[in-house]
Specification:
This protein is of the alpha/beta class and 502 residues long. It is built from 15 helices and eleven strands. The protein binds glutamine. The site of glutamine has 14 residues, from β4.
């Protein structure tokens, strides 16, 4: 019999509704799985007691006409998303003991859909990073090769989904933090259009870029989870009322005549040849199904990383001002005055990368530099958004390109070189700057058996086309069925080899 942990969201729905197994059995199976793969270090907290309780409540309703798409199904949350009954630490010392005071809107929506919050996943501190190494809880490992990073910053959510601990998980994406780890872990990940999903109750990093997204192991599963999250929320002023918040992967998805733009600026030096060749093959497979491939140019792409590393730190420095030891966060002891309290609390509480961003952000916003950096970056941001707009207006219906220039790199390999870490996001950052929907779709393995992702970028609010194309691609290829071999990361004794530092 197939083991419960390996079933996807939709298979679990069927199995639970047919009473083939109970939600309590499912939760137990996933807890056992989580223990046997604990060396991946995906979780900051596993919410064993509350997950078991919610499962037994769900079991009362299963079999009845419940109408809840996720009833009895465990989902993991990145640890920057509030969920009552859990800590929300953002993998930072400054919030090590912060109890969620209320549910984020996405948590509430998951609960309303019947989902069970399984645990809070490990991440880069305050979502700043591309490798999930910058965490007070230690690095997350990639299930395909535990000496490699899973990507970041939502690396715990990606690795937990890829390693079949949970069928799906939530992350946040400010510059690529859902799509890049999805790519490096060989699963699906989506960042919806800016404004599609509420950020109320999600710890803010860079508010003009942040968006909640999710991970799953098939396009159909991803559509179910995405649909559960979307919808207008008056508590987030950037949230937009829409009537098209439900997504699916149509059976026999037809992509005939669809114009797919392939931007030449996304196939540049620094892209690994194996990544380029897998992505080009994937595009060819879409062409074989009747899509029309169009060569396009997004000429301002090369400014994106520079622009992002002005705007994101600027907004972060402002958002993180609240963690001062008084309003929020760790408070240093034995301080002689208020200034020292701020100074010591923040020095002790924040990690190195977060401090670097706060310093850069404060600098680019300071008097005399604001116009030269922040204002200028905003102008170039508009140019980047206009590149996409022009392409979508006259040349193509969506864009296809790599998610990241390389496959998973080694743990420790880039920690001392922030710029090379930042360059990981060259192809994902423009999508956040333009507010567009983007999806990562598994499309190959390199010669080291590490996953490669195809990025699909849509017009604003056109997630439906991304799901349609992902469905058509999934139908034609079998990359989505590839899993990291259990032997590379499962502890055979099943015992909890816990590598976490707390
Ligand atoms: N890697 C990027 C950064 O460090 C993006 C992070 C994210 O999307 N949260 O800022």
């Amino acid at each position: 019999m197939t083991e419960l942990h390996s079933l996807g969201l939709q298979e679990l729905r069927t199995g639970l509704d047919n009473r083939e197994f109970s939600s309590s059995e499912l939760v137990q199976a996933l807890l056992t799985r989580a223990k046997s793969v604990s060396k991946l270090n995906c979780f900051i907290d596993i919410l064993e007691d509350s997950a078991k309780k919610s499962a037994s409540v769900a079991d009362q309703t299963l079999g009845k006409d419940h109408g809840k798409p996720l009833l009895g199904i465990p989902i993991a949350l990145k640890d920057n998303i509030l969920s009552v009954g859990s800590r929300t630490t953002c993998a930072s010392r400054i919030l090590h003991n912060f109890q969620s005071p209320y549910d984020a809107t996405v948590t509430k929506k998951l609960n309303d859909s019947g989902a069970i919050v399984f645990g809070k996943t490990n991440m880069d501190e305050f979502a700043m990073g591309s490798s999930s190494e910058a965490s007070t809880c230690g690095p997350v490992c990639n299930p395909w090769d535990t000496s490699k990073v899973p990507g970041g910053s939502s690396g715990g959510s990606a690795a937990a989904t890829a390693a079949s601990i949970v069928p799906g998980a939530l992350g946040t994406d400010t510059g690529g933090s859902v799509r890049q780890p999805a790519s490096l872990c060989g699963i699906y990940g989506i960042k919806p259009t800016y404004g599609r999903v509420s950020r109320q109750g999600v710890v803010a990093f860079a508010s003009s870029l942040d968006q909640v997204g999710c991970f799953a192991r098939s396009a159909g599963d991803l559509a179910v989870l995405t649909s559960a999250l979307c919808g207008h929320d008056p508590l987030d002023s950037t949230s937009v009322p829409r009537s098209d918040n439900s997504f699916e992967v149509p059976a026999g998805a037809n992509i005939k005549g669809l114009r797919i733009g392939v931007p030449r600026e996304y196939f540049i030096e620094g892209v690994e040849p194996e990544v380029e060749s897998a992505v080009r093959k994937a595009i060819k497979s879409l062409e074989d199904q009747g899509a029309q491939v169009v060569d396009i140019s997004l000429p301002n792409t090369h400014h994106a990383v520079n622009v992002y590393y002005v705007i994101a730190p600027a907004e972060a420095s402002s958002n993180l001002a609240r963690f001062d030891g008084i309003r929020y966060g760790h408070r240093a002891s034995d301080c002689k005055d208020l200034k020292e309290l701020y100074y010591k609390s923040r020095s002790e509480g924040f990690g190195e990368e977060v401090k670097r961003r706060i310093l850069v952000g404060s600098f680019v916003l300071s008097t005399g530099y604001y116009d030269a950096y922040y204002l200028r970056a905003q102008k170039v941001r508009t140019l980047i958004a206009q590149d996409f707009k022009a392409a979508f207006e006259s040349q193509c219906d969506l864009v296809a390109c790599p998610v990241a220039p390389t496959t998973a790199f080694g743990i420790g390999e880039k920690v001392d070189d922030p710029v090379s870490m930042y360059l990981n996001d060259v192809f994902t950052i423009p999508v956040n700057l333009a507010g567009l929907p983007g999806m990562s779709v598994p499309c190959g393995l390199d010669s080291k058996n590490l996953p490669i992702g195809l990025q699909l970028i849509g017009k604003p609010w056109d997630e439906s086309t991304l799901f349609r194309v992902a469905g058509a691609y999934e139908h034609a290829t079998d990359w989505h069925t590839k899993r990291a071999p259990d032997s590379s990361y499962v502890d055979a004794t099943g015992s909890a080899k816990d590598s976490r530092r707390s």
